[in-house]
Write a structure and sequence with these properties.
Blueprint lengths: L1 E6 L20 E4 L5 H10 L4 E3 L16 E2 L3 E5 L2 E6 L2 E2 L7 E2 L1 H9 L2 H6 L5 E4 L18 H10 L3 E4 L13 E4 L2 E5 L2 E6 L6
Parallel strand pairs: 1-2, 2-3, 3-4, 6-9, 7-8, 9-10, 10-12
Antiparallel strand pairs: 1-13, 5-6, 11-12
Length: 200
C-alpha cells in the first residue's frame, strides 16, 4: 500500500502545483493535524482514496471539520488490511479543545480497551503529538506523551506517524526513526510511505 502522510503545513507539491492525476498513485492519505479543512478536502477530492485524519492543537480555530474525510480520533479504523488508531491533539500548554495533559491522554487510551481487544491491536498509531523523549522538545508546547511509548511497547504497531514537530525547527530532527519494532515517522509537510518498503 502506498500512503501519503501530511501534517502541519500544506505542501505546494499537492496543492499549488497540483496537476490532474498527481494523487492517483496513493491508496490512502493520512493527516496528522493542523491543516485547514479546505486543503484536506482538496486532497480527498482529487485523490482516488480515503483520507483519514486526527486533529492538531490548532484545529479548533478552523471552525469545522473537513468534509468527505474520516476522523480517527479515539477509534480504530480498518482500511486495506491496516488497523489505524487515532489520538489527535497536543500536550496542554493553554486551554484548548485539542490539548491534553498526560493524564487526560492516558484516559483516552484506557477508554479504547474494547476496540483494542476487538481488533487485536493496531498497525498504525496516528497522532498529532510525538511520544515523550522520541524526537520531541523539552518545552511544554512540544512535549510528547509517554502513553504513546506504552502503546508502542505493548502492541508493537508497524508505524507511529505524527506531526507537530516541524522539521525546520532543527535540522538534526529525523524524518524517520525506530522504536523497537515500530517505524516512527514525522509527517511534517508530507512524506510517502510504502508499506512494503521504506518511506521516501
Amino acid at each position: 500500500m502506498r500512503i501519503l502522510a501530511v501534517s502541519d503545513v500544506p505542501s505546494d507539491r499537492w496543492y499549488k502545483f497540483y496537476k490532474p492525476g498527481k494523487l492517483d498513485e496513493f491508496d490512502l492519505i493520512l493527516s496528522c493535524g493542523d491543516l485547514k479543512p479546505e486543503y484536506l478536502e482538496f486532497l480527498v477530492t482529487m485523490a482516488r482514496c480515503p483520507l483519514i485524519y486526527v486533529h492538531g492543537n490548532h484545529d479548533e480555530g478552523n471552525g469545522r471539520d473537513p468534509q468527505g474525510c474520516i476522523c480517527a480520533d479515539d477509534r480504530i479504523i480498518e482500511y486495506g488490511g491496516l488497523r489505524i488508531l487515532g489520538l489527535g491533539g497536543s500536550y496542554q500548554y493553554r486551554e484548548g479543545k485539542y490539548m491534553f495533559t498526560e493524564r487526560a491522554m492516558k484516559s483516552r487510551v484506557k477508554k479504547l480497551w474494547l476496540p483494542l481487544k476487538k481488533h487485536r491491536g493496531f498497525d498504525i498509531l496516528l497522532t498529532h503529538a510525538p511520544a515523550l523523549g522520541l524526537n520531541d522538545f523539552e518545552n511544554i508546547s512540544h512535549r510528547g506523551f509517554d502513553c504513546f511509548n506504552t502503546l508502542m511497547e505493548k502492541y508493537e504497531p508497524r508505524y507511529f506517524i505524527h506531526g507537530h514537530i516541524h522539521l525546520n525547527y532543527d535540522f538534526r530532527l529525523p524524518r524517520k526513526s525506530q522504536k523497537g519494532k515500530t517505524t516512527v515517522i514525522n509527517a511534517f509537510d508530507y512524506c510517502i510511505i510504502d508499506t512494503g518498503e521504506d518511506e521516501e
